[in-house]
Amino acid sequence: MADVIKKWREATEEVARAFVEKYYPKSSYDDDDDCHWVADEVGSIFSIADMFFDVDRMIQAIELNATFDQLYDYADGELEHAEKQIAMPINFKNYVKYGKKENIII
Prior knowledge:
Strand 1 and strand 2 form a beta hairpin. Helix 1 packs across helix 2 (55-64) and helix 2 runs parallel beside helix 4 (92-98). The protein folds into two domains: 1-65, no CATH class; 68-106, no CATH class. By secondary structure, it is mainly alpha-helical. A three-stranded antiparallel beta sheet has the order 1-2-3. It is built from four helices and three strands. The termini are far apart.
């Protein structure tokens, strides 16, 4: 079982590395000043450039070939909605495929 978890952590780190290379090319995955896993827990929340992403969002962004602007605008919209305790009107996948920034701005 420990081997399965080790492989998952390694794969998760590769996802994060690919995410950094695609969306934050000026940053280095290996530089803790640029990015890191919150509380050093691989697979939890990933912090980069004052933004926070979970593994699922990183995978979705890469799979959907989302632009940086789509990723940033959606994350910003999520924060605004959370602060006002309002549900997001569109999920990330549909936002990338069909949405406009106006769909998520309050």
